[in-house]
Amino acid sequence: MKAQQQVFPSLASYNQALNDLGARRIGHRVLAISAAGTPSFTGRQAKREGSWHSHHRGQLMCVKDGLLHVRTTHGSWAVPPGRAAWVPPGVPHAVNSNGVSHSWHLYLSPAASRPMPPRPCVIEVNPLIEDIVPRAVLWTAQERLDAAQGRLMAVLIDELASAPHDRMQLPIPRDRRLLRIATAILDNPADTRTRDEWAAWAGLSSRTLTRLFQEEVRISFAQWREQAALMAAVDRLAHGESVASVADALGYATPSGFIAMFRRHFGEPPARYFASQ
Q1: What CATH code would you report for 11-162?
Q2: Thinking of the domain 171-275, which architecture would CATH place it in?
Q3: Where does the pLDDT of residue 71 fall: very low under 50, low under 70, confident under 90, or very high at 90 and above?
Q4: Residue spans in the chain of domains classed CATH 2.60.120.280
Q5: What is the pTM of this model?
Q6: What is the pLDDT of residue 40?
């Protein structure tokens, strides 16, 4: 007999269910949960900020609308619809959501997590994954899976492990001076200060800023600033702002310059990228 999909009476009860699944040491290799039907998710919500935590199981988070921001000690990720954030078992993380009304989460046992990437990342969610997840949501942690369900779970794990990685990653520097600069840029990606001006503001030389950024985050300061602008752009575009408005807010002289930057990172212009979600 199939289990009925749970409806959670409140956001707090849903969050508790997430924590319970993440901590579960017995049960299926993959446990699934969806926020569909939860009263707190029936409309687009204001921003919600989560606290730092970790799970015994690996966690995969996907939203159908709005945007997730996932923070770990490795960096920050923007997760638009059609993508999923992967956090391996035991990795501390915090999740902020903006405008999310429907999401699903998968919790993979440590054994099922082994084929997955060893570090946090964002993966693309293909139609097969989207088809299997609603079925997995119906499988309670206590029930025994039949042969067909077991095969579906194996396919799901294989699809997740082979899914392409998204490039929407923003590594966070640890040096306190670089972190000060990074935080200020994230607060205002349109800030037009030059590298020399940022270095002077943080109390280090321009050469030291360049060297430390390359050492700590493995990309140049200019590349990091562009990634920060891209994260801000995805957030705004996911909430319905026009390309022209986003380009202007991020300091681009024309929309074409912003579109070129977006295409360089994602291989397609914003309209096509979001249409595919």
Answers
A1: 2.60.120.280
A2: Orthogonal Bundle (1.10)
A3: confident
A4: 11-162
A5: 0.71
A6: 43
